[in-house]
Structure prediction request, 391 residues.
Amino acid sequence: MDITDEKGKVKTKKWMPKAGILGGGQLGRMLLQQAINYPVNTYVMENDVQCPSAHLCHHFTKGDIQNFDDVYNFGKDLDLLTIEIESVNVEALEQLEKEGVKVFPAAAAIKTIKNKILQKQFYKERGIPTSDFVVTENRQDLERHLAFLPAVHKLATGGYDGRGVQIIKTTSELPLGFDAPSVLEKMVHIKKEIAVMVAMNDKGETAIYPPAEMIFDQSLNLLDYQLCPANIEQDVLWKCEAIALKVVRDLQSPGIFAVELFVDYSNEVFVNETAPRVHNSGHHTIEANYSSQFDMLWRVMLGYPLGNTESVMPSAIINIVGAANHTGNAVYEGLEEILKLDNVYVHLYGKALTKPGRKMGHVTIVSNERQELIHQANRIKNTLKVVSSEE
Ligand SMILES: Nc1ncnc2c1ncn2[C@@H]1O[C@H](COP(=O)(O)OP(=O)(O)OP(=O)(O)O)[C@@H](O)[C@H]1O
Ligand SMILES: [Mg+2]
Prediction:
């Protein structure tokens, strides 16, 4: 806050902006790790007082990010706000924007993206390539679109990390569909999944990171590992970059965005979805690029020049997820062996409890050799396990 004299005249300018983060998971945690290099006071709101960010911010507030009053009261005395998850109370953010709080990304962009129906309609209206889709209100409605199969059914709201996404290949799989508002989209024959991080500042200047290639575990529908730069024809990469830039420009919001794209076997590019925030697909930028996604977002929010997105070294990311059949206090098996490797960086998210599939950390590998990246990614996957102490 500014300091004023008895007539209300500003005596000293505020010296440190107050920045709030809605959500206190690993994304908030890594954002806070970078915040310590900037003149900024950090505030986090989250319901779980033991979340990964709680003890790393200057001020922690226990509250529900989906509740209007909680978000409004948390944000009203702040200079700027950002999110680490889309499922926040957008109405409160709209009100805060009206009152002069800067929100990154803009509330309108979150509104469009957090509902998959609105998000797909946005791409369609803007002429941004995305797979064909229909909106379904319930399971009965779904059964009217048999001609659309094979398709992918996605819950409009509330899905994350592959939950809320159901592949429906044949009519016999229709009962697996969601009985709530969803999109049913045509199945793309995916050759590559690409993620492009793009930042945009208040002036509309953009910075784009080299595209990364995501490799998925089909059974879990969860990212297995990721390589950057993506190994794909240069003209296809340019197409991916151009489309990602258009998505962000059309959203007309400052912030950082991860645009997930599919490339099919005819090298056609489709937008899958966009995250209006720092994202798992950008974690390698901490070590492998001059300015990381977290650094970039602070630059955008604090009004500094955009950072250099160039990569210093090719990299891979491997997610460390909770092992199957283990629920309880987290224990990291194989950690010592991984820490002996000289081209890997271990990030553990500080979550006390593990459960099957829960994101517990990630490891970044850097090397000029693609084969070495893949080799180490597999080695780490087979060595580092998050189990529970009770079992
Ligand atoms: N239209 C499609 N055609 C083929 N595969 C698809 C399609 N849509 C989604 N998938 C597959 O399902 C995965 C998850 O889909 P999506 O990214 O929409 O879900 P999500 O729950 O938001 O996941 P995450 O949070 O992990 O990004 C995709 O990465 C892709 O592998
Ligand atoms: Mg996705």
Summary: The chain has a mean pLDDT of 94. Residues 131, 152, 154, 159-162, 164-165, 185, 187-188, 190, 193, 216, 221, 260, 272-273 surround adenosine-5'-triphosphate (ligand 1) (CB under 6 Å).
